[in-house]
Amino acid sequence: MKKKGLGANFTLLAAGLLVGRMGGSRLAWVLVMMGGCLLPAGIMFLAGGGTMACYGTLVAAFCGMQLCAVVFSVFARSVVQRRVPGRMMGKLMALAAALEACG
Predict the structure, then answer these.
(1) Is residue 57 within 8 Å of residue 88, measured between CB atoms?
(2) Residue closest to 70 by CA, chosen among 11, 2, 5
């Protein structure tokens, strides 16, 4: 297995375990955490940090945002799968996949 595939599988497994612990009422906190990941980068730019410090903070912030996005995606899919009737599941998942790929 390639390193890229191993990292993706590990991230999805970690996100699935985290989602299982969080419960359905905390989906909004994932979005708040996503926005909170940008705060250190904004502070670093406003404080006038060096070029490499700003770059490193920005990369770390986007890595945190990507982790939050994966958790949100896993969380949202599980909520959709619980609430949508079985006969509409394929159509809705196809729509969701198209929006994720193109949007």
Answers:
(1) no
(2) 11
Q: Is 15 exposed, middle or buried (0-12, 13-18, 19+ CB in 10 A)?
A: buried
Cβ partners under 8 Å of residue 76, min gap 6: 27
**Tokens in use for 21?**
């612990």
Compute CA 50 distance to the chain's CA centroid, rounded to the nearest angstrom: 28
pLDDT tens for residues 26-42? 777 877 888 888 888 88
In the chain, count H helices and then E strands: 5, 0
Full-model pTM: 0.64
